[in-house]
């Protein structure tokens, strides 16, 4: 699973989150950094309010958390979501002994991004893509 620090780098680089069922997220800076939440039909849903989009926690009696603004949540994209975000630049994923390498190609130039996990390699490639898109 993608860590909070790398997810924060993606958000800072401009990655926009369009929440969907099954998405994982964290709520940093509220003493919940180590908790991972999942959007679902029953317990955690996105609501459109006149003041903006919020994430509502339905039936959560164990803590005083009714809702948070979408901007306060930090999306933790899955491997398949990161790969999809690379779009047509994605070429391959290779697993080596203890590393994973994602190969992308942009404007005819291949580039490799190596990391300990596939999610981290995809995230590195996406960070690069977001940086050159600016």
Description of the molecule:
The protein is elongated and about 50 Å long. It has one domain. The strands form three sheets. A three-stranded antiparallel β-sheet has the order 2-1-6, with helices on one face. Strands 3-4-5 form a three-stranded antiparallel β-sheet, with no helix packed on it. A three-stranded antiparallel β-sheet has the order 7-8-9. Helix 1 packs parallel to helix 3 and helix 2 packs parallel to helix 3 (118-133). 25% of the residues lie in helices and 36% in strands. With 134 residues, the chain is α+β, with helices and mostly antiparallel strands. The protein has three helices and nine strands, in the order αββββββαβββα. The mean pLDDT is 89.
Secondary structure elements and pairings:
Elements: H1 4-12, E1 24-27, E2 32-38, E3 44-49, E4 52-57, E5 67-69, E6 74-75, H2 79-86, E7 90-95, E8 100-106, E9 109-115, H3 118-133
Antiparallel strand pairs: 1-2, 1-6, 3-4, 4-5, 7-8, 8-9
Helix pairs in contact: 1-3, 2-3
Protein name: Pilus assembly protein CpaE
Key traits:
single chain, 134 residues, alpha+beta, three-stranded antiparallel β-sheet, 3 helices, 9 strands, Pilus assembly protein CpaE
Beta content = 35-45%
Compute the gyration radius: what is it?
A: 16 Å
Q: Averaging pLDDT over every residue, what do you get? A: 89
Specify the oligomeric state.
single chain
Characterize the main sheet.
Answer: 3 strands, antiparallel
Short description:
This protein has 134 residues and is of the alpha+beta class. It has helices spanning 4-12, 79-86, 118-133, and strands at residues 24-27, 32-38, 44-49, 52-57, 67-69, 74-75, 90-95, 100-106, 109-115.
